[in-house]
TrEMBL record:
Domain Amino acid transporter transmembrane: start-end pairs: 43-333
Originating species: Trifolium subterraneum
GO process annotations (BP): amino acid transport; auxin-activated signaling pathway
Function field: Carrier protein involved in proton-driven auxin influx. Mediates the formation of auxin gradient from developing leaves (site of auxin biosynthesis) to tips by contributing to the loading of auxin in vascular tissues and facilitating acropetal (base to tip) auxin transport within inner tissues of the root apex, and basipetal (tip to base) auxin transport within outer tissues of the root apex. May be involved in lateral roots and nodules formation.
Regions that span the bilayer: 46-65, 72-93, 122-145, 166-183, 189-210, 276-298
Keywords: Amino-acid transport, Auxin signaling pathway, Cell membrane, Membrane, Symport, Transmembrane, Transmembrane helix, Transport
Gene Ontology molecular function terms on file: symporter activity
Cellular compartment(s): Cell membrane; Endomembrane system
Protein name (record): Amino acid transporter transmembrane domain-containing protein
Length: 352
């Protein structure tokens, strides 16, 4: 019996269970990676991750932060604005660290990390639906926001022109996406993402500098506007959601990091984290001045889009809306670079 046990042990060591399956799966994954170009080029620089993260995170929602402040008040508003920045930076750091937490393997997509944590099937069921909600929901928001921004630009530049329906501007936005969607990887949209990141900084700067130029309004008040306690509570939670959503953008963090080269001496997390820090500094420069100065200037009368409260000069407001339109063109491309379905479906071509 002892010799039998020794033989069994030796057999286990020489031929571990499922070894062929593991090797076959590795080969299959390699073929899938070659088939999917989204992160095939692992030669991105650290600053690529900066403007990719800025483009994915900063959105037209920044223009609604002053209104959110009016529903929260000075104390809770500033606290939540900074606290959300810290919490989301910490959670993004966790994602960066987990990208290569298993030696010799990179989790390039969320569902791969989910499968490692929860199992092959359960990981898919937990991660993919939530990621799709973010991806599809974000895509719809960007389509509508992009079309609305282009319409506002048109109406501001040519107020006497014949009105054009919003749906036509959404179609114009969609046409641009149809062309850009042929760019297969994050590296291929790096130029688009850079322009979008610059645009976000531009319209945010326009929002708060124009507010300063306009000056504090007469009889400005900072008390919360609500008819009753119920409305006050709903307004508070709505504002809380606005602040939390403003720091969205984690849904493509792993895909962004997947484009960065990695070596034992310098893992990808070093360059990625450097880019994230720069991105978050720029995000703070975009968000905090708009939220605080916008609320300070207009008080509780601020509109849910601060550009509407500014009104004039019309040429500057038109430029800001155009910048928003250009920015969300890049944002749409960033959130659309998740390819969990392609990964799963294309695996059938290489065996299961």
């Amino acid at each position: 019996m002892a010799s039998l046990g020794t033989e069994s042990s030796n057999a286990f060591k020489s031929n571990p269970p499922h070894q062929e399956t593991i090797e076959g799966k590795s080969e299959r994954e390699k073929k899938i990676e070659e088939w999917l170009p989204i992160n095939a080029d692992r030669n991105a620089k650290w600053w690529y991750s900066s403007f990719h993260n800025i483009t994915a995170m900063v959105g037209a929602g920044v223009l609604g932060l002053p209104h959110a402040m009016s529903q929260l008040g000075w104390g809770p508003g500033v606290t939540l604005l900074i606290l959300s920045w810290i919490i989301t930076l910490y959670t993004l750091w966790q994602m960066v660290e987990m990208h290569e937490m298993v030696p010799g393997k990179r989790f390039d997509r969320y569902h791969e990390l989910g499968q490692h944590a929860f199992g092959e099937k359960l990981g898919l069921y937990i991660v993919v639906p939530q990621q799709l909600i973010v991806e599809v929901g974000g895509g719809i928001v960007y389509m509508v926001t992009g079309g609305a921004s282009l319409k506002k630009f048109h109406d501001t530049v040519c107020p006497s022109c014949k009105p054009i329906k919003l749906s036509f501007f959404i179609m114009i936005f969609a046409s641009a996406q149809f062309v850009l969607s042929h760019l297969p990887s994050f590296n291929s949209i790096s130029g688009v993402s850079l322009v979008a990141a610059v645009m976000s900084l531009c319209y945010s700067t326009i929002a708060w500098t124009a507010s300063v130029h306009k000056g504090t309004q007469e009889n400005v008040q900072y008390t919360k506007k609500a008819a009753d306690t119920t409305e006050l509570v709903f307004n508070f939670f709505n504002a809380l959601g606005t602040v939390a959503f403003a720091y969205a953008g984690h849904s493509v963090v792993l895909e962004i990091q997947a484009t960065i080269p990695s070596t034992p001496e310098k893992p990808s997390k070093v360059s990625m984290w450097k880019g994230v820090i720069v991105a978050y500094i720029i995000v703070a420069l975009c968000y905090w001045p708009v939220a605080i100065i916008g609320y300070w200037i207009f008080g509780n009368e601020v509109n849910d889009n601060i550009l509407i409260s500014l009104e004039k000069p019309s040429w500057l407001i038109a430029m800001a809306n155009l910048f928003v339109g250009f920015h969300v063109i890049g944002s749409y491309q960033c959130v659309g670079k998740e390819n969990e379905f392609q990964t799963k479906f294309n695996s059938s071509f290489f065996g299961s």
